[in-house]
Amino acid sequence: MTLTEQLAGFAVGVRAADLPDEVVHESQRILLDTLGCAVASLDDDGAQRGVAFGRILGAGTPESSVIGTGEKVSHLGAAFANAELVNALDQDAVLPPGHVTPYVVPGALAVAEALGASGEQLLEAIAVAHEMSFRIGKCTDYLRDMKDGVVTIPKIIGYASTIFGATAAVGKIKGFDAETMADALGIAGSTSPTNSQRAWMMHAPSTTIKYQLAGQMALTALQAAHLAELGHTGDRQILDDREYGWPRFIGTRRWEPAAIGDGLGDTWTFTPFQSFKPYPHCRVMHAIFDALTEIVDEQDLAPEEIESITAWGESFVQQPTWTNETITNPRDAQFSMTHGLAMAAHRIPPGKQWQTPEAVNRPSVLALTERSTFAPHPDHAAALAKDPAARASKVEVRARGKVFTGERAYPKGSPSKDPETYMTDEQLIAKFTHNVDGVVADAEAKAVVDAVYKLADVAKVGSILDLMAPR
């Protein structure tokens, strides 16, 4: 069997009743966080462009919800709009190779609502999509790849590897058999988006569509699934052919496909690496933010009291998008390291408030940005080599004639050797509640939480999305 056929067989064979408890639990948590992230983004200008394009795509049967709006469009339009909403504030769940959830969940969610699919079917789709994306991502070049003991960013990287999981999730909802699923995955490989993330890193101020247009990924997955369902055949050798297939034309130097099939169907591998983001900001700064906010809270420091902030963190982020201090919109702010330090020091509650134009352009934030600096942590690479979850981080705050210092080995939201970094259900629910505040009524928000944590018992996925309509 080709790799594509192995993945297809795995996808169609998954049954919710057979999923390990940790896979069920993590898939439920992913869905809850995804719904909250989408609603939190409703006022974001960039997200609204995605919603507007979703409406253009949405001609036809109003069958699937634009999350948090009460509006229904075609499943194609909803998938695009929701993918853009989920990723807009950059607080969506992360899993190596990086962002996976905003690419793989929206298409399956839109189709599930349109077809009247059950929560059990969506649970299976989410689990399959994340397992498949994690396995394929492990085979390819990665942002934190090491060379001679140094973290060395490959010249071509991105999230094209998620197209297979996104397509499988849609096929899972549609009830594809192994043959149709294999064709869908083959088509997905042949129509895969490119890996353009490195260009985004190097050109600042960067494009507001960010490192990968989430809506495009969702649409490409739907396209592949529909074409296979209509009878098109896919290239089933697309993953096996290193010379001319998908690994070549998406630009990865490293291709280690053994990770795809090793224990596939017997061993679930993604859950120990699934992370959730407390801050609407690039993940590279989160451990520093944890230490910084602790200092500011304990010392009750006002921004104007802070003479300077000096931070040390991930060694590879000396790229224009991260070093940029020209903040023209909230997307710039999501990745600027020094601007992020200034935001964290202002004690604005993490969530949608961080990304309002008023907060991003607040004079005191911009002034503190100029008093903040970032440098690579000298122990970052060594720590990463020992533990892929490690993020050696340090921050010094000068204020009141003193120097306050904080350090972290791991960021909050990631499973690690430190049990305190795991984001508990209670903390994830609090994040969701904060994100939907002002849009979804309290009673409905609680009902969504209850339904998601009992997803296998939900008769129709659409009932959850109906609860997300504004009140």
Walk me through what this model shows.
- The chain is of the alpha+beta class.
- Helix content is 49%, strand content 9%.
- The protein has helices spanning 3-13, 21-40, 45-57, 75-88, 101-115, 119-139, 162-174, 178-190, 197-202, 214-229, 246-249, 258-261, 286-299, 320-323, 330-335, 337-345, 357-360, 363-370, 380-386, 425-436, 442-452, 462-467, and strands at 64-66, 71-73, 94-95, 98-99, 146-147, 150-151, 306-313, 372-376, 393-399, 402-408.
- Strands 8-7-9-10 form a four-stranded mixed beta sheet. A two-stranded antiparallel ribbon has the order 1-2. Strands 3-4 form a two-stranded antiparallel ribbon.
- It starts with a helix and ends with a helix.
- 56% of the residues are buried.
- The mean pLDDT is 96.
Which class do the helix and strand fractions yield?
Answer: alpha+beta
Mean pLDDT: 96
| Biggest beta sheet summary | 4 strands, mixed
Helix content: 40-55%
Which stretches of 5+ consecutive residues score pLDDT under 50? Answer: none
Q: Specify the oligomeric state.
A: single chain
Q: How far from one another are the termini?
A: 51 Å
Helix segment count? 22
What structural keywords apply?
globular, 4-stranded mixed sheet, alpha+beta, two-stranded antiparallel sheet, 22 helices, 10 strands, 471 residues
Secondary-structure blueprint of this entry?
Blueprint: H1 3-13, H2 21-40, H3 45-57, E1 64-66, E2 71-73, H4 75-88, E3 94-95, E4 98-99, H5 101-115, H6 119-139, E5 146-147, E6 150-151, H7 162-174, H8 178-190, H9 197-202, H10 214-229, H11 246-249, H12 258-261, H13 286-299, E7 306-313, H14 320-323, H15 330-335, H16 337-345, H17 357-360, H18 363-370, E8 372-376, H19 380-386, E9 393-399, E10 402-408, H20 425-436, H21 442-452, H22 462-467
Helix pairs in contact: 1-8, 2-4, 2-6, 2-20, 3-4, 4-5, 4-10, 5-6, 5-7, 5-10, 6-7, 7-8, 7-10, 8-10, 13-16, 16-18, 20-21
